[in-house]
Amino acid sequence: MRAVMNLKFFLSLFLLTFSLLPSSSCLGADKKSAAISQKAMDLSNFMSHYYQKPTPSLVGKAMRDFSDLDASLKPNASAPFAAFLGVLMSKHPEKVPGWIKEMTFKEQTDRGVICYALWIANNNVCREQLKVVAQGMEGKRKEAILALVDKKPDNLKTMPIRTPADLDKLWSAFVASGDRIYVERVMSVLPEINGSGERIIMGGAAQWSLSANVKQHALVKQICIDELKKHPEYKPFLKDLKLN
Q: Domain spans of the chain?
């Protein structure tokens, strides 16, 4: 099972990044690798507690930092980063054209990530910017992205939670907004620990992510306390958390 994000380092991407950081002796010999690692840490720090101190002026830089990451690290981070951006683009549509102008698209996949963010932001400005970004794509990929303009976008507050990647998206949306609904949705998966097949894995992933983030976010802890009052059936799954 792919690890659900621990927001201390934010995303499985950054768990991988820190395990791959060069030693101090290598930093001098490989400045490019060190710069990329630094960008990963900068991006992690920017995202992990964004809701506590929003800085929309730095979103464009964060997008560039994502584009500069090593390609091997992007697959695990793409959907969560897109969800994070989508929440911010929905909240600040007036800033989106400027953010897009700041972006440097190193790979076609970068355009896909940004287009998904624009799609789920679900406003007219973002739909127009999606068309702009898609112009840099080619062939069937471009056609598929442009087709999104007329499709109903994913709604992170109501979408089915089917995979660990969906849990990652919910945590990303939470750190972007501080909206408790995303934590509540993660908690709603807990009873699946008593389910069967892959759903047991989903319940365990939700449990693990809550355990990690209660330690790092006072707001997550408070939300858990509040939800346990309304949903005592969650208590067996959170008994090891220090919520008092």
A: 11-23+30-150, 179-237
Q: What is the DSSP string of 81-98?
A: HHHHHHHHHHH-GGGHHH
Identify the burial level of 111 via C-beta atoms within 10 angstroms of its C-beta, where 0-12 means exposed, 13-18 middle and 19 or more buried.
buried
CA distances from 102 to 39, 65, 67 (A): 16, 11, 11
Extract the tokens encoding 167. 């849990």
Per-residue tokens: 3? 């690890």
In this structure, which amino acid lies at residue 112? G
What is the arithmetic mean of pLDDT over 154-181?
A: 95
Q: Residue with structure tokens 């054209």?
A: 97
Model pLDDT for residues 24-40, shown as the tens digit of each residue: 333 444 555 666 678 78
Q: Report CA torsion sign: 82, 98, 42, 68.
A: positive
**What single-letter DSSP state applies at residue 107?**
S
pTM passes above 0.70: yes
Q: Which residues, other chains included, contact 147 with Cβ-Cβ below 8 Å and sequence gap of 6+?
A: none
Helix (H) or strand (E) holding 129: helix 124-134
C-alpha 124/C-alpha 66 separation (Å) is 25
Does 233 or 42 have the greater pLDDT score?
Answer: 233
Distance CA 150, CA 101 (A): 24
H or E, element range at 13: helix 11-20
